[in-house]
Amino acid sequence: MHARLEQRLAQRQADGLSRSLHLHEAAQGPVLVADGQHLINFCSNDYLGLAADAALAVAMADGARTYGVGAGSAHLVCGHSRAHADVEAAMADWLGREQALLFSSGWLANLAVMTALLLPGDEVLQDRLNHASLLDGAKLAQARSRRYAHLDMVALKKQLESRSTALVVTDAVFSMDGDVAPLAQIAGLCAQQGAWLMADDAHGLGVMGDEGRGCAAALDEHELPVLTVTLGKAMGTQGACVVGSRVLIETIVQFARPYIYTTASSPALAVATLASIKRVRSETWRRERLHEHIALFRELAHSRGLPLLPSQTAIQPVMVGEATAASRMSARLWEEGFWVTAIRPPTVPPGTSRLRVTLSAAHTPAQIRNLVETMARLRPDA
């Protein structure tokens, strides 16, 4: 077994697909010190600059003084605190749904939903570029998962018409391309065929829509019965929520093993998340500044001929092509003082490796200009 593991690791290295950890020793922000080097951080999902917000840190400390630092058990044993319940109530109110259910990660939330809703043999239609947690959720549920071409509504309509589909599942904002699913159109197709729709709005919550309610803000509970959102990105804390009807949430509580058998997240963290929800809803300037930064980056990148995908979100992929070339460019950017991650197979299809630039309200225009100039100078064909 050990020899086989060494062989697999060596092959991953030879293919230019090896991953590695970088250690930083301070709070998240637009500037980090990692592996002893000062870097401008363009790979964090802290879209609104809240991960190191002083007021949220105070709220978490207050929560720790009240509840301690650990939940002690699963929610269904003795781990469900008033702080957890307050977050769930606030999320349901914000997103216009009957109830919400808190999880310690988006991955667990997606696994829980799909294993609770689906029976073995049920058919699920998924966008080809859906997040891995959605694909794994269908596998764990022993459902038959079919994938339609990315954002291809004609293909989705044909598949819905030709099969008995229990669930259509899509990312709202696609994490590696940054484009947005046409949720209203998908909801209409699902309604015509009697299928349920599930959307994962991990990268839209806090960033898109009125009050930061995300890509699904315009859809009601009947059009979009199942919505998962992540708290560890724009919200600046950690965890995830499933929001929907009372029946949906109760079904997950009763049947989802990833919920039943998981220790609850820290109640102190829930206190910080409650404070974050209030900040995100009221501080519209954070979203406004982020979208200004997105527009600035795209304008500058186009002027310097950087190949972008058509994303209007905080995720701005700069296409490179081959995995080794993307890795080399990421390493050279690191040497120049910029932390930009190379995204390679199997996360993206072969030949589509890219540098995934993520923007934050906490960046400055000067940092964005410097990044674009450096990328233009370092790109392979420069």
Overall body shape = globular
Terminal CA distance: 45 Å
Helix/strand/pairing class, anyone? alpha/beta
Number of domains: 2
Give the radius of gyration.
21 Å
Task: Let me know the CATH homologous superfamily of the largest domain.
Answer: Type I PLP-dependent aspartate aminotransferase-like (Major domain)
How much is the average pLDDT?
95
Low-confidence stretches: none
Order of helices and strands: HEEHHHEHEHEHEHEEEHHHHEHEEEH
Q: Mind summarizing the main beta sheet?
A: 7 strands, mixed
CATH architecture of the largest domain, by name, is: 3-Layer(aba) Sandwich
Textual characterization of the structure:
- The protein has 382 residues and is α/β, with parallel strands linked by helices.
- It folds into 2 domains: 22-51 and 284-378, Aspartate Aminotransferase, domain 1 (Alpha-Beta Complex); 54-282, Aspartate Aminotransferase, domain 2.
- It has helices at 2-14, 54-67, 75-79, 82-95, 106-117, 132-140, 153-162, 183-193, 246-255, 257-260, 267-282, 284-303, 323-335, 365-378; strands spanning 31-34, 37-41, 99-103, 123-127, 144-148, 167-171, 196-200, 226-230, 240-244, 315-321, 338-339, 341-343, 353-358.
- A 7-stranded mixed sheet has the order 3-9-8-7-6-4-5, sandwiched between helices. Strands 1-2-11 form a 3-stranded mixed sheet.
- Helix 6 links the parallel strand 4 and strand 5 (144-148).
- The radius of gyration is 21 Å and the shape is globular.
- The relative contact order is 0.16.
- The mean pLDDT is 95.
